[in-house]
Design a protein that fits this description.
With 166 residues, the protein is of the alpha+beta class. It is built from four helices and four strands; from the N terminus they run βαββαβαα. Helix 3 packs antiparallel against helix 4.
């Protein structure tokens, strides 16, 4: 396994840039995402992975052509300097992180505002579940904790802006 940087300043904070979020299509949903990441020697580049959905309907037309129909969306916490290496193993989503239109829901709504809020809620819930699981396991490195805090703040801001536009 590749090791992760441990350079810390006198306060115990990680020396370096914050982790960057990369939304990708994961084409091997039967395999644990972190197991796949480590098997591809990306453990030093990807510090966290959040599955935004468990499964995707096979008839979902939002999956880009050329990808397996069971591909799912995953958010990755990536070391910025190693982003290109990570992208070479995944298909990057080009929409901004605030756009949750690709997130698949088990039950959807015909009302656009409700649909949008359900998708934001689903993404936020996935992040919270992983955050809690990692905290209980004692696996929250300071850099990953900062990434979660930044993502939660961004999600709340994005949700408010989306509601205000509709």
């Amino acid at each position: 396994m590749a090791s992760r940087p441990t350079d810390q300043d006198s306060n115990g904070d990680f020396k370096g840039k914050p982790l960057q979020t990369l939304r990708v299509w994961y084409t091997k949903p039967g395999t644990d995402i972190m197991t796949y990441i480590w098997s591809q020697s990306l453990g030093d580049a990807v510090w966290e992975a959040i599955r935004l959905e468990d499964t995707r309907p096979t008839e979902d037309s939002r999956v880009p052509n050329g990808l397996p129909k069971n591909s799912i969306l995953v958010d990755l916490a990536v070391v910025e300097e190693k982003k290109d290496r990570v992208i070479s193993h995944f298909v990057q989503v080009t929409l901004p992180l605030s756009d949750v239109s690709l997130v698949s829901l088990v039950s959807d709504s015909q009302v656009r505002e409700r649909q949008l809020l359900l998708r934001y809620y689903a993404v936020h819930t996935r992040y919270m579940q992983q955050y809690i699981r990692r905290g209980v396991e004692g696996q929250l490195h300071a850099l990953v904790l900062q990434w979660y805090n930044d993502r939660f703040n961004d999600m709340v801001k994005d949700e408010r802006e989306a509601v205000m536009q509709d």
